[in-house]
Amino acid sequence: MTSLYGTGVCRGYAVGNAVVIKTVTKRAPESEFSGETNELEKFKDAREKFKKETMELYEKLFSAAGSKNADILLGHIGLCDDPFFISETEKTIKDGKTAAQAVNAVCTELYDIFFSSEDELTKQRSSDINDIKNGITDILLGNKGFSAENVPENSVLVFDELTPSAVTRINRKNTVAVIANGGSVTSHSAILARALSIPTVLGAAKATERINSGDTLAVDGESGEIIIEPDEITAENFSRMGKEYDRKKEEVKQFINRKTQTKDGTEKAVCANIGNPSDIENVIKNGADGIGLFRTEFLFMDRDKEPTEDEQYFAYSSVIKAMNGKEVIIRTLDVGGDKNIPYLGIPKEDNPFLGFRAIRFCLKNRDIFKVQLRAILRAAVFGNVKIMLPLVTVKAEIDDTKELISECKSELKREHKQFKEDVPIGIMAETPAAVFSAEELAENSDFFSIGTNDLTGYIMAADRGNPDVGYLYDTGQSAVLTAVKRIISCAEKAGIPVGMCGEAAADEKLIPLFLRWGLDEFSVSPESIPYVRKIISEN
Questions:
Q1: Which of 188, 362, 408, 490 is catalytic?
Q2: What's the pTM?
Q3: Confidence label for 25 from pLDDT (cuts 50, 70 and 90)
Q4: N or C, which end of the chain has less CB nearby within 10 Å?
Q5: 76 tagged catalytic
């Protein structure tokens, strides 16, 4: 019995038999060139057939997971019609390559560009390029792509690369879990896996080398743990947890639109973490009390210059209006660390998580920061908005931001633009410095939100993505819990509300503890809202 660790991207437990699927890089054979006109026609026909097949997958996904998730596949169709892709492929054919060779060459070049990007989200989209390359090349060569119909019941699919179309083709009747060597929480494949409720672990390095087809696997789609050839007791425990999880999924539906309160009637809030306005549909469906963390990095990614004030204003406004008066906490730009955006010119650092990121970047780039603050102030007129500053370590960072906000208000008044005057300003309490300075920071903040993900990493000096120190990355460690308790206590003493927006906010073992200490708000993924509300109601 050995363990392998990755990143859990879709909750659930499963025990099944491995089916290892190694994606063979499609290198078109040196077949005879059938003439420029013929090869161009082959490319056109294959492209149209791929688009048709993708639309069929889109319709299947639309009925299973809704338009927001199905729209991911429309991006594949968009690339097929992209003038650069078409012209470069046609040019390569005119240089004497077959249609299959040309598609392979152009997509490989695009893949390398995406994969080498310093922007993590762009990098994750490289698997979409491979999806398109393999799909069109399969058609040209007459190959059969991945088919979920060929795998036996109770299968755990183990991919070297999990592409969006592969996720869509998975049949839930015979697949109990999915594992892949690469990928991340933000990849399109992860988004689709969550939408289809398939327990999934991505970023499990060398999984296809360490696991053989036929191996029995126990998979935890939340923690990211994979146990190879579990003993009988472990396998039984995972099976039991899987059945219990499925039972709870049905049971918690009654908590979707209930008031959030403890057994003694104390009201709490269960809010949602979102990273894009498109998440709102899911937020409302799961009955969120508000939005406890609205990440704004999406506005700055996948582009070559920063968004305008109006672009940001419309994005924030759409979310605020949709929440219809419920709380919306907007976190200001949190770049650096694992979120590097090339055009912002953030220098390469030996220790980026300890460097020029989040509020530090914003206060050094005041023009960019002011554009965002102005947009938030303007959008705030549509509802109940709060501004949250990430990675605050000293009071001066709060003071400097308040000065900038005052400047923004003065400018907006001169420009006769409508804005909200009294927008509360709070901080993410997520550093050891914030723990030790919590009294002072609380006296100068309107609220706290505990970011347990970074806080755990900083306190335990452990990288959550490093399996060798994974046992240390645990919010349940006494050092981290002591820090959390202190933050809550200092907030209570200062008379300000305190929430939590890290993964620990959905941890059923820790929630009772946080309730006893006085945590006011739990901000979690939209799907976790009814689960957390149920746990709160039982304590």
A1: 188
A2: 0.68
A3: low
A4: N
A5: no
